[in-house]
Amino acid sequence: MLDQSAIDQLRAAPIGPQSHLIGGAAVAAGDGGTLDVISPLDGGVLTTIARGTEADMAAAIASARAAFDDGRWSGLAPAARKKILFKWADLIEANALELAVLGVRDNGTEIGTAYFAEPGSAVGTIRYYAEALDKVYGEIAVTDPSVLAMVQREPVGVVGAIIPWNFPLMIGAWKLGPALAAGNCVVVKPAETASLSLLRMAELALEAGVPPGVLNVVTGEGPVVGKAMGLSMDVDVLVFTGSGGVGRQLMEYSARSNLKRVYLELGGKSPHIIFSDAPDLEQAAKAAAGSIFRNAGQVCVAGSRLLVQSDIHDDFVALVAEQAEAFKAGDPLQLSTSMGAVNSERQLKQNLAFVADAPGQGARLIKGGGQVRRETGGYFMEPTIFADVRPDADIAQKEVFGPVLAITPFADEAEAIALANDTVYGLASGVWTADLGRAHRMVRAIRAGVVHVNTYGGADGTVPLGGVRQSGNGHDKSMHAFDKYMDLKTVWMRL
């Protein structure tokens, strides 16, 4: 059980200036540059991180390439890699509260969510891939008896991973777990506004026995070090979770350099569909509120579009507004807090701009809409609900990435499907109905990588997460994630 006094002690712990991690050593930026780390809890400066340069990123990539080429990691027996990864997971677990509090001070997620979703999730992910790494077999093809044809699976080489700020440890582990388990070497570029916990987790990897150069971390600005990673001729695969605009830039960088494979998870505008025959409307309303207000709406799969059948619309809107009362923005390091801070001042202003524009596009404000806890100096926003949202409104089409729920009524199944698919995205979705046939029809009809039925969220590491359309390509989680980090080599041997 989490202990408030232990959290308070960690909150007060000083955080020294942070450096890159390159070749197993702490390395300052080549030009000595730093960036202030601004805490969303109070707007104050927590510490500094290295402001990486192109040369810093090149050094990290060179370190990873040397480590891969000499086989210090890929050349280990699978059992040896497994042992080290398990030790890494054990160290993350032993330091889970430290990692969680560090992350909350950096990105604002409420501690109850952060503890389980960040180090807790990372531990499970790394253990999953550690256990799986010696269970990925090659193949022998069925050929003429005079030929032996084999398909071998090999690590791709150097992986570049760009990690977002909302859940850096969870999403970081989704990339690092399978990439390292497969035998690759990795260079990580964390978000500027959430680097601290990833740096600490990488230090624990070294402590666990991951050889120097196998896992490197370079902090700094995306247009500098992220671009350098994207343009590198020595990065074999690039994985990214974040905005569509940056995803497009990374694909352009690939085309301009070595045609590295680029796997993208670009968020979404996920429809959460409530039919009047939902088995439990109160539970559906609770799920609808949780799917958008947890972590202040800063969740890629957030159910930000609530589609409600017309004959229950008014009653259900009232139920959701009632459930939203459980989410009150507060001090993220208090165990009683149910919703934390928005990650940055920039993100808060963007969220509030969407709210300001919505009434002019026909939306009706039901609840919230403003900044709160101004006296703290932090970046907090109250849960916000709009009804009568037109399908073409900005809050129905664009990813706000904040605690803003857009509610639209629909008449029947056909209209629900049309509305659900009426965005450029296709990451997640949800359907509530007691009709089994309808549930199956909706699963088939909705264009999304994930469809929840009579629930929302909660899928574990055994199933893949990935999007379609402009939500990206490739998959995190499950055994399918190995596909991004392994090459197939055909061996054709005449006997």
Question: Mind explaining what this structure looks like?
Answer:
The protein folds into 2 domains: 4-266 and 472-492, Aldehyde Dehydrogenase, Chain A, domain 1; 271-460, Aldehyde Dehydrogenase, Chain A, domain 2, CATH 3.40.309. It has 16 helices and 21 strands. It has helices at residues 4-11, 54-69, 78-94, 96-107, 111-132, 168-181, 196-208, 222-231, 244-256, 281-293, 313-324, 345-357, 394-397, 413-420, 436-445, 482-485; strands at residues 20-22, 25-27, 34-38, 45-50, 139-140, 147-155, 158-162, 185-189, 215-217, 237-241, 261-265, 271-274, 305-309, 364-367, 371-372, 380-381, 384-387, 404-410, 430-432, 452-453, 486-494. Strand 15 (371-372) and strand 16 (380-381) form a beta hairpin. 53% of the residues are buried. The mean pLDDT is 97.
List the helices and strands and how they pair.
Layout: H1 4-11, E1 20-22, E2 25-27, E3 34-38, E4 45-50, H2 54-69, H3 78-94, H4 96-107, H5 111-132, E5 139-140, E6 147-155, E7 158-162, H6 168-181, E8 185-189, H7 196-208, E9 215-217, H8 222-231, E10 237-241, H9 244-256, E11 261-265, E12 271-274, H10 281-293, E13 305-309, H11 313-324, H12 345-357, E14 364-367, E15 371-372, E16 380-381, E17 384-387, H13 394-397, E18 404-410, H14 413-420, E19 430-432, H15 436-445, E20 452-453, H16 482-485, E21 486-494
Parallel strand pairs: 7-8, 7-10, 8-9, 10-11, 12-13, 12-19, 13-18, 17-18, 19-20
Antiparallel strand pairs: 1-2, 3-4, 5-6, 6-21, 14-17, 15-16
Q: Which features does this protein show?
A:
single chain, 495 residues, alpha/beta, Aldehyde Dehydrogenase, Chain A, domain 1, Aldehyde Dehydrogenase, Chain A, domain 2, 7-stranded mixed beta sheet, 5-stranded parallel beta sheet, 16 helices, 38% helix, globular
